[in-house]
Specification:
405 residues; alpha/beta; eight-stranded mixed β-barrel; five-stranded mixed beta sheet; 18 helices; 49% helix
């Protein structure tokens, strides 16, 4: 049967509170096998593989999900399901007289112990399969109870995030950036914060990956951009001309309308382009190298007056090519380097070198994660342009920033 019919049966079993095991099987290296043998191989392989499924999993419900992925609903135990690997070894498939090196990856999830809906059973299976493939394949396994709980929480976060974006429940906090020459706050980094009534506080390192995977990062990005630009205008009207930094993902810039979106927000809020900084990661920079449309959009925005900042410098990919191609005007030294600055000579030389390197390219350099006066003094001594961190201020709301200014 197909995926649609399988979903119907799963939902019927859930409605009648039947316990069952959901097994998802994926043929390893399927497309490599296709290239090794004749055109007839695919149909023979799939027919023979299906025959073995039917022989081994008798009286179980079976479905074809994709060309080389299958699902089985069975009351059989985990030890028996895992025995299918040995069964395939004992009953090889022959093509043109040669035994195929056929193996499978499999994911086992139980209803209702592990997951409670068809989509969640499918997601859990994909999580297991991806892990198995990355470990070399030829394994049928299940996730731990903790992994299933994490997946269920992730699914709930996705659902609640849609509601939060619709109701504009996300908050923006701002972390001040101190100019080390003037000792004045010259800008702030806008940071998203979300406290859900059901889930509690969702930290950014959980929220952002989920938002990127689901495509909701674009909505979060636009929300943050609007709030940050509105706030920059409020401060400007009060006589404080400070820039706001907003984090952006490569996924957002793959949208060909990104320039139009940002220009639209600047026009709508009345925010000068010169007050907006967009922070990108080294991963973003590396991917942007290969995509001319992203570089083009960045350069258009730079012409408008928007500045681009490279975040977490030194923690990603050892490539400086993107510094030639991308319109970067500043980079931020990651807090992992700053943490050992006060007591490690090697780190001191490294950070001093980074700052000199940045200045040689006419780039400003900012240090993140500054937590002590000693770190601040050394950075000032090395002619670092600016700093941010708990020693200066934690991320705070706009009213608290106004008091600092």
């Amino acid at each position: 049967m197909n995926r649609y019919r399988l979903e119907q049966i799963v939902n019927e079993m859930i409605d009648t509170k039947q316990h069952f095991t959901f097994v998802y099987l994926s043929i390893d290296k399927f497309y490599s096998l296709k290239e090794l043998y004749s055109e007839q191989m695919e149909s023979i392989l799939l027919q023979e593989f299906t025959n073995r499924l039917k022989m081994y999993f008798q009286d179980s419900v079976m479905a074809r999900i994709t060309i080389n992925d299958f699902a089985i609903l069975t009351p059989l135990g985990e030890w028996f399901i895992q025995g299918f690997l040995a069964y395939l070894e004992q009953h090889p498939i022959y093509i043109e007289g040669i035994a195929l090196p056929l193996t499978v990856c499999g994911g086992i999830s139980k209803y209702p112990e592990d997951q409670q809906t068809f989509n969640h059973l499918l997601k859990a299976s994909h999580e297991i399969i991806n892990k198995m493939h990355s470990d070399g394949g030829s394994t049928i396994s299940s996730l731990s109870t903790a992994d299933h709980k994490a997946l269920s929480r992730r699914a709930m976060i996705e659902k609640r995030l849609l509601i939060a974006l619709d109701q504009k429940d996300l908050k923006v906090l701002y972390q001040p950036q101190l100019n080390l020459k003037t000792k004045k706050i010259e800008g702030v980094e806008a940071l998203v914060r979300w406290e859900d009534s059901e889930l509690g506080i969702i930290p950014p390192d959980v929220l952002i990956p989920i938002a990127e995977e689901t495509g909701l990062i674009n909505e979060i990005g636009t929300f943050m951009l609007e709030k940050a630009c509105e706030q920059a205008v409020i401060w400007k009207k009060k006589g404080h001309t400070i820039f706001v930094s907003v984090n952006s993902s490569v996924r957002e810039f793959r949208d060909k309308n990104m320039v139009k979106i940002i220009r639209g927000v600047l026009d709508k809020t009345g925010c000068p382009a010169s007050l907006l900084q967009i922070e990108i990661t080294e991963k973003f920079a590396l991917e942007a190298e290969a995509e001319g449309s992203i570089i083009k959009q960045m350069k258009q925005l730079q012409t408008d007056g928007v500045r681009f900042v490279l975040d977490d410098f030194g923690t990603g990919y050892a490539s400086f090519r993107y510094m030639q191609l991308l319109p970067l005007e500043e980079f931020k030294i990651d807090k992992m380097f700053i943490a050992t600055l006060a007591y490690q000579q090697k780190t001191q030389k490294l950070i001093h070198g980074m700052i000199q390197f940045g200045h040689s390219l006419n780039m400003r350099v900012l240090a993140e994660g500054v937590e002590t006066e000693e770190q601040l003094d050394l950075l000032t001594q090395y002619n670092c342009n600016a700093a941010q961190g708990y020693h200066i201020s934690r991320p705070i709301d706009a009213n608290e920033i106004s008091k600092l200014l």
